[in-house]
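Good day; I would like, with your permission, to put a structural problem before you. A protein sequence and the structure tokens that stand for its backbone fold form the material at issue. I would ask you to consider whether the tokens describe a fold that such a sequence might reasonably adopt. I set the record out below, with my sincere thanks for your time.
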Amino acid sequence: QVQLVESGGGLVQAGGSLRLSCVASGRTFSPYTMGWFRQAPGKEREFVGSVTWSGLTNYAISMKGRFTISRDLAKSTVYLQMNTLKPDDTAIYYCAARTGLVAITTASTVGSWGQGTQVTVSS
């Protein structure tokens, strides 16, 4: 498994942008998929998107268009670029990873979680 540490969260006004980063450590020499989830207060954890070892991305339908995931294998880092943010995007954002070459689609497929980073979007 890998260990994950997120950064980049904070307070942003509606319509603004934010980029989250997540650095992996540990067994980073084996293929693994990285992705993002979020959890708003009182709600279940929600899939945002993921990127595979080969760079293939998949997104939750509601996230597609405003959110972009990218990955730097050399830095063992995944990024989440969030644009045109809305107050409904306020949540704790969690980095996730699973070993292998398959995309992440649900929380049950995740092997490693980061500690989360808070994103707050003010209206």
Observations:
- The mean pLDDT is 96.
